[in-house]
Design brief:
Length: 379
Amino acid sequence: MSFDFSQFDPSDDASMMRAALALAAQGESTTQPNPRVGCVLVRDEVIVGSGWHQSAGELHAERLALADAGDKARGATAYVNLEPCCHQGRTPPCTDGLIDAGVARVVAAIRDPNPLVEGGGFEQLTGAGIEVESDLLGDEARWLNRGFIMRMAHRRPWVILKSAATLDGRTAAFDGQSKWITSEVARQRVQSLRSECSAILTGIGTVLADDPQLNVRAEGTQRQPLRVVLDTQLRCPLDARIIGDDHQCLILTASEDADKTAALIEVGAEVVNIGVDGQIVPQEVLAELARWQCNEVLIEAGQTIAGAFVKAELVDEMALFYAGSVLGDQGRSMFKFNQAIPFDQRPEFRIRASEIVGEDVLLSASNSASVALLSQKLF
Ligand SMILES: NC(=O)c1ccc[n+]([C@@H]2O[C@H](COP(=O)([O-])OP(=O)(O)OC[C@H]3O[C@@H](n4cnc5c(N)ncnc54)[C@H](OP(=O)(O)O)[C@@H]3O)[C@@H](O)[C@H]2O)c1
């Protein structure tokens, strides 16, 4: 796929980092569990090579850019939105490639929080006499790879909560009916949101009420996210559509019922007991999903699961679709808390963007504490 560099200026470091970020974003739906990385090589103010990582096991962005540049990489500056890797994975270390090609300068947006790299890439490059600069457009770079960074630095995925609601914030009628609150265009947008996430998580309440598939049905889909159901007692029907036939459905439970477990496995589900005192605890859910190498998890559940994750302070971002209708006080609210929340203890989110999508409004918000976590490291 060719990339249009016309809006970028090769004589400007920030502009070239923006180009690297835009290239990296092309892998938004495909690089999981790997990070999204783009690389641009510039020599004498001319772009001589570029590349972006497409999927795990394939060449990294730096290797593709070096191959694109050939001999012109000698003496060039490499712009890359993540510290180049210095370890042998399924592909060789990018640091070796940059050194061997004779690159003179590397400008990276951020350090790689992966314990296998973590400054080691910069050290190798500096040791080989390459000029290294980092922390250019760091906020943008961290946001693009928020899932990968959260998993590497905090051992849990980044959690995005999606909900479709009426103008008065109701997500279903009094009897549970919610199909469809928002328009077809908004539902298409949800498809692309799903494609950018490693996993889609719901509760058994939604499975029993709606029997959703929660897969990506967009044309040309290369990767299906893992579908996750929180089901304490294994009430999931054996013919639930979410199980599918691709072995991509994970049921997290607190049940030790061997017969129900075997029956669900027989029809193609993975079943993992993560119960603590007979309950499913949100923190344990995310720890388990980190073990499944999930970077971003999209919650598409009813008010019970949505409320449980917000109350546990484990929702990092919200994508809320509002439709021009009203369901009133008998309609189901977005978050069930099971207790009164004092005004001064209300969870807060920063509104990031609003957008008209078809006939609806998409409101995006993030948790400032979660965004701050992206610049810290716990392990
Ligand atoms: N408008 C929207 O965006 C939207 C999206 C999805 C669903 N919905 C609507 O939401 C309704 C279903 O809502 P719901 O609240 O019943 O379903 P839910 O939130 O999807 O699932 C709730 C169930 O999850 C299980 N669960 C497992 N671990 C849990 C935990 N740690 N905390 C809380 N619950 C846990 C509980 O059942 P067990 O105890 O048996 O495990 C609980 O009853 C339906 O009417 C559906 O149409 C609307």
